[in-house]
């Protein structure tokens, strides 16, 4: 029925059969706009359907998303076993975290004259740490430094050079492309790493026990919001 | 440089004429004008296969092929992965839709004699595709590592093992040792997607050979000229599009409203090598062959019959001696073939029931008819059959 | 998908205060069934699908311990469960579950509604089919008379009793009520996305119906051209 109705105003476009007859050609002038509307609505809706079909597939790439939200993943580290000048590496959220105990010499080296000129961000102005670590020693208390051990260049784990008699400052050197950081994780100029090492949220529970994952001094801090990890 | 491309299409055309080849083969390609809806099933199979491959890729991303984690990773997909339940539903529903489509597609080819000269290769690649789809489905069914996965695989592997001579080495290659364990599961995983992707290649051959001979049609008579054909686009694109829409609707009803039809609930129990579930039933699409396997009281006999029932399909183009293609003009085939379809259906029913009194005899009868049809009727019917006159042109046949 | 679920919530008139049968069933599971039965494949966080809040989920998880590798002495160590952990079993292992239950393991609930013969309806009935064993009837040790079982007895002591728990929403906790609520909960654990599945299905079918009409018009228009050509040729 509908086909019959339509056929009266039928017209030919490029998709005509191989040998158009005269009748067909004669109807061309009276071509109504309607057919194109139908065709474009069909094609458009078809494409929309294909896009909708892509949704579950792409969505599944999110995996078990949202599950880690609001997860309580703090860890506690006992500091009594760390000798001055040494560090331990613990795992937090799957990342290596350096926990170091500093010597007075290391602390002095952090404030050595002329050092600031060689650092990219000596005053920690770029958001790479909670507020309570945006100080000269980039930590909650000067004696203890806690840093996420992921080079801000391309993600290798920097090596720790503990203070020695020749160099009492203690610092980090990345094996991959030679980035250098001081004991407070501050990136040196003239090396590829663009930012200081991130500081995780840290709370000192007792002088010998540190909690990583929560910051008492900056409770709103979320490591996901820092400049670069 | 003397040569300067006039426009992009011309530049590409000179180097790789995909646009014009596409136009020739899929736009202007002359199709018989009288195809009925059964000719849309090839397109349905393509759609089902496309969705299977696509959803399979996204399932693979979240699946773990180890005994310890396979079942749990499927549970994770079904419960926690974003839209995972939908991706899995598309994959599970796709298998049933593909098999259903293929069985109709083959039935169509048998009825209208689409396997005869010059289309033997289309039929051969098609039968090859069926075998590959079966292997893929079998391997895939093992992956969730549920009770049905485990025991279905056990039964099939023991069947392979029972084949004299090659059986044992074959099973051992498949399993990488003797047991159905981690190594075997990993291999079935690889087998599953390698076969699935190979299917895509064979489909290319299948369709390419259709484009050499052109499509058959319900009369079985070759088109006599331009009046008998219409260009593929827009005639069959619009017709197939309409069919695909219906096909997808059935598919959607299945996965959104009847998902229980797609699974045996026992497969939601993790594989347990010391407990066999009460009644092992195969998926419906394997049921006819499962019935054949159990039709005779001999392990090897059942195996040979089941494998032979598929193998015989490969020979069909040479078994049928009638010069007339379409069953429309073959009074005897017109009866014999629907009986074959009915036997296949009854075999499926028998496969889903215990092999005792009535069903055992049903399967024996049907399997006998299956072989009789292909090995006796196809070669001999033409000798006694008086065919009806075939039409000379396709115009007026739709 | 989220907005669809929201729409569903609105359609179903789910408000923040009224508790659903599934939620009450969860309470029954938590207070009664979970002392013996496991939910091996359901994570605490999945319960948000029932409408539990993050805080409720955390509170529930925090009451459980999960294995956490070995301590400095090489002894197994545990930690408080997190929402992403699986709810799992109340027993440390199958052998222990068997030991505590006269040799049989209480079945896992993750997909029980699907794998149980007779489905949830049977479970609901079974929970209400305990009775005094008829005089003279001898039951095997460790089993209890239950008319829903094929042999008339079951290894599980009657778990539900009237008024055994109290529902926050004031629903009287009769055995029947608890059994039905638990059934709803099991239905949900077995098919956690059923509501979304149906809703998406309706949208997909509506879309396909629309496409069908359009394609039908297209197809008729194209093919009528052929009839017209034939007609003109026959002149
Ligand atoms: C993955 C599986 C398959 C796909 C995707 C597929 C696809 C197609 C397509 C698109 C066509 C053209 C449209 C049509 O005639 O329906 C076709 C034709 C055909 N197929 Fe298949 N096919 C498959 C499996 C099979 C099987 C299992 C057989 C038989 C054993 C088979 C036998 C044929 C024959 C004989 C034709 C030609 C029909 C004619 O020209 O009239 N195909 N196939
Ligand atoms: S990753 Fe550390 S220097 Fe490149």
TrEMBL record, chain A:
Its cofactor is [2Fe-2S] cluster. SUPFAM superfamilies: ISP domain. InterPro entries: Rieske_2Fe-2S, Rieske_2Fe-2S_sf, Rieske_Fe-S_prot, Rieske_Fe-S_prot_C, Ubiq_cytC_Rdtase_Fe-S_su_TAT, Ubiquinol_cyt_c_Rdtase_Fe-S-su. It is a single-pass membrane protein. GO terms for cellular component: plasma membrane. Binds 1 [2Fe-2S] cluster per subunit. Residues 111-203 form the Rieske domain. Its EC number is 7.1.1.8. PROSITE patterns: RIESKE. Keywords: 2Fe-2S, Cell membrane, Disulfide bond, Electron transport, Iron, Iron-sulfur, Membrane, Metal-binding, Translocase, Transmembrane, Transmembrane helix, Transport. It holds the Pfam family UCR_Fe-S_N. GO terms for molecular function: 2 iron, 2 sulfur cluster binding; metal ion binding; quinol-cytochrome-c reductase activity. Residues 1-28 are annotated as: Disordered. It catalyses: a quinol + 2 Fe(III)-[cytochrome c](out) = a quinone + 2 Fe(II)-[cytochrome c](out) + 2 H(+)(out). It is found in: Cell membrane. The keyword Secreted does not apply. Residues 13-24 have a biased composition (Polar residues). It is an enzyme of class 7 (translocase). The main subunits of complex b-c1 are: cytochrome b, cytochrome c1 and the Rieske protein. The Rieske protein is a high potential 2Fe-2S protein. Component of the ubiquinol-cytochrome c reductase complex (complex III or cytochrome b-c1 complex), which is a respiratory chain that generates an electrochemical potential coupled to ATP synthesis. This is Ubiquinol-cytochrome c reductase iron-sulfur subunit.
Automatic annotation (TrEMBL), chain C:
One of its GO terms (cellular component) is membrane. The chain crosses the membrane at residues 199-218. Coiled coil: none annotated. GO terms for molecular function: electron transfer activity; heme binding; metal ion binding. Pfam families: Cytochrom_C1. Residues 20-190 form the Cytochrome c domain. Keywords: Heme, Iron, Membrane, Metal-binding, Signal, Transmembrane, Transmembrane helix. Residues 65-86 are annotated as: Disordered. Its cofactor is heme c. It comes from Gluconobacter wancherniae NBRC 103581. InterPro entries: Cyt_c-like_dom, Cyt_c-like_dom_sf, Cyt_c1. Heme c binds at residues 33, 36-37, 156. Residues 1-18 form the signal peptide. The keyword Phosphoprotein does not apply. It is found in: Membrane. This is Cytochrome c1. SUPFAM superfamilies: Cytochrome c. Binds 1 heme c group covalently per subunit.
